[in-house]
What we know:
The protein is an alpha+beta fold. The chain has two domains: 3-115, Rieske Iron-sulfur Protein (3-layer Sandwich); 129-363, Naphthalene 1,2-dioxygenase Alpha Subunit, Chain A, domain 1 (Alpha-Beta Complex). The chain has helices at residues 119-130, 152-158, 165-168, 174-177, 214-219, 233-243, 303-324, 327-336, 349-363, 367-371, and strands spanning 3-4, 13-19, 24-30, 36-40, 55-57, 61-62, 69-70, 76-78, 99-103, 106-110, 141-148, 189-193, 196-202, 256-263, 267-272, 275-285, 288-296. The two termini are 24 Å apart. The radius of gyration is 23 Å and the shape is globular.
Amino acid sequence: MIGRVEEIARPRDFIVRDIEICKTQIVVTRDLDGKINAFHNVCSHRTNKVVLEARGSAPAFACSYHKWVFGLDGSLRGVPDADGFIGLDKSKCGLQKVACETWNGFIFVNLEREPNVTLKEFLGAFGETWDGLYLPFVDNPVIIVADLECNWKAIADGFSEAYHGAAIHPNTIGGVFLTKDNPFGRPHDMQFRGPHHWAVISGNPDYTLPEAFQIERLVSSGGISTTGNSFGGESQNEIDRMLAHPAINGSGANPWINELTGIFPNFHIDLSPGGFWTHQFWPVSPSRTRWESKWYIANATDLRTRFQQEHYVAKLSEIMLEDVGNVERVQQGIESRVKPFMELGDPEALIRHTLFHLDKWINAASAAEALAD
């Protein structure tokens, strides 16, 4: 997953994304016909980078080295002193295209020159189950980005289970979903569809904000949520549209607190009564990861809502620091090679599921083979 359609909402809009582990950079555009295109950011002349801005709007792209000009569809439009290139065929000299498809507003790319499977085939039954999911506030994310000295799986695993809640989050959100009957955050249900999955997390029906949380009590609008309390009014109407999707809490957890969905291999979409957020884990090297977390909230229209949101972001930052605080120490333990295996319990089944499919994909000759039962 490389972005959302709202990031290139208008014709001529573009974004640029680094995929460090593949040593490439992808440009995603919306052309004048409204079509979304993707291509490698490498000039067909002398391999210079063509697009130097991270995002923007432009009618075409001119390479800064020799001013070769490319259209929004990647085609070569202009070459200075073209007569000096004997036999030049502009139709064969466009930017290298990248397969690009969308699902629920998310933009996916496939770096294979001739993709072995379509996005629909890749998502399979997971994509069908969650298709049509309405996602609110997609044009207003709070974005957290961190470069971490760990393998991407070390941090992805941390966001794939609630077992750590009692140890890591006792003073922030642990009480929201841990109960006497379920003190270690066992999922209410887990579902597996090919290499993708989701887990249903139930909440604590007896949870109330502690007396010490005076500011949070002041901004609270009631209810429980792993992302803070919803903001009421039109914001709640938008969230209710999302929550109406039939796949959410399909197993009937009461109270339902979180749906953790994982799209193989490195993208999570989390849903809760307070809204939704995403995690993406970009490998930079075997021991480095760029983690991107996006939390989607309504545009504040009054002072109270803005105050709620400022508190929300402050608490969110504290919770995220708790989550990522261990991962570099975990990486150090991995690199010591002291332990040849990990013990994974039932609450960590999503981790086991991902490891199984990673092994399957590594050893498969093609994506189609990896997806086969």
